[in-house]
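Progress note, sequence design subtask.
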């Protein structure tokens, strides 16, 4: 299964913020939307970074409550690992495991096209394993 198949089911909507958004505003967005990360984009939807709950925890641990008044640009992950719609779930899982992150923006020439989370990947992988097991059971009973 590819990233495109996940996005076809899930949709292409992504919660984004600008680099000038404050950390407090980003926290409000994460809490209100019940999500774990926002993608930081410019006015042309080019990916500039990603801000996760982990980034926020590190910012507050390092700077205390005053970090909440700073812009997300100061704390976001700047070197964002992305994937394309043609990538496989296995490739995305490998990248997430190697990099120890839970969200991967889907990009086309640097422009944001979607967002894949570890939950999306695990859900689709379980569906695939269950389909394979059912096909194997059907094959065995037919033999």
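Output:
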């Amino acid at each position: 299964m590819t990233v495109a198949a996940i996005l076809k089911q899930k949709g292409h909507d992504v919660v984004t913020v600008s680099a000038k958004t404050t950390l407090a505003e980003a926290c409000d967005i994460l809490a209100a939307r019940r999500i774990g990360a926002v993608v930081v984009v410019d006015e042309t939807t080019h990916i500039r970074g990603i801000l996760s709950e982990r980034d926020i925890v590190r910012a507050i641990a390092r700077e205390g409550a005053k970090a909440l008044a700073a812009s997300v640009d100061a704390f976001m992950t700047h070197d964002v690992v992305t994937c394309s719609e043609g990538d496989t779930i296995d490739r995305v899982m490998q990248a997430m495991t190697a990099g120890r992150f839970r969200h991967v923006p889907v990009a086309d020439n640097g422009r944001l096209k979607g967002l894949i989370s570890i939950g999306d990947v695990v859900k689709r992988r379980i569906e695939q394993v269950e389909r394979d097991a059912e096909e194997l059971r059907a094959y065995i009973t037919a033999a």
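The chain has a mean pLDDT of 94. Work on this subtask will continue into the next period as scheduled.
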